[in-house]
């Protein structure tokens, strides 16, 4: 499961966003922001091999894009997490702040949480949205073409190379960790075997030399 893009907007005014890979996500999301209702809701839009998930609360849209194979529980848990952090950090100023005024401060938080949920989503966050997401029906998952009018369709461009590089990096990191674990396991096994060999040699020598004092051998 990979979340590659996140955005927070008040109406059409984008307050903060972050993308983990190259693509035209900002262009696509600007079109979607014109179609997303302002009343509280949560929904998912399919666009090619990706899905845009969003939550609207108090006129603020929290949106992310993930690959189509992703289960919705993780993206929505991510959105709930950044919604809580964004509200706690900015409070009422969210409703008056100029566009991108929070981007410098909050984009790194979006990146950090995106990395966290992509690699190891917190269990408590998933549990917190489980009951909300398990009841999501097909009506809440629409093809984005249905909300766009003629002439508005934009091809979603995703840099597959960046995505493959990210996946390769995660695989390489896991491989290095596994190699380190196997190396230290071999070291511990070798040390234990050497210890046993020393003990056996000592016992054999003591037996042949008349006990632990090696009295027969010294004489």
TrEMBL record:
Keyword Protein transport annotated: yes
Subcellular location: Endomembrane system
Lineage: superkingdom: Eukaryota
Transmembrane spans: 189-214
PANTHER family: SNARE PROTEINS, VESICLE-ASSOCIATED MEMBRANE PROTEIN 9
Family (UniProt): Belongs to the synaptobrevin family.
Protein name per its UniProtKB record: Vesicle-associated membrane protein
Organism: Ectocarpus siliculosus (Brown alga)
């Amino acid at each position: 499961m990979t979340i590659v893009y996140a955005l927070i907007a008040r109406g059409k005014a984008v307050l903060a966003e972050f993308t983990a890979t190259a693509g035209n996500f900002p262009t696509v999301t600007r079109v979607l922001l014109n179609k997303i209702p302002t009343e509280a809701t949560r929904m998912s839009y399919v666009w090619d091999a990706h899905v845009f998930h969003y939550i609207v609360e108090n006129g603020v849209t929290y949106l992310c894009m993930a690959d189509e194979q992703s289960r919705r529980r993780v993206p929505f848990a991510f959105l709930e997490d950044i919604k809580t952090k964004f509200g706690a950090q900015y409070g009422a100023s969210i409703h008056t702040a100029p566009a991108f005024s929070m981007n410098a401060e909050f984009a790194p938080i979006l990146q950090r949480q995106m990395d966290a949920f992509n690699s190891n989503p917190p269990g408590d966050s998933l549990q917190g949205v489980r009951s909300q997401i398990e009841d999501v029906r097909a009506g809440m998952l629409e093809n984005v073409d249905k909300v766009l009018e003629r002439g508005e369709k934009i091809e979603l461009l995703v840099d597959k190379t960046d995505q493959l590089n990210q996946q390769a990096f995660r695989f390489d990191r896991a491989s290095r960790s596994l190699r380190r674990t196997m190396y230290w396991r071999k070291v511990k096994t070798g040390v234990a075997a050497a210890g046993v060999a020393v003990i056996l040699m000592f016992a054999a020598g003591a037996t042949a030399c008349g006990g632990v004092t090696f009295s027969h051998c010294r004489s």
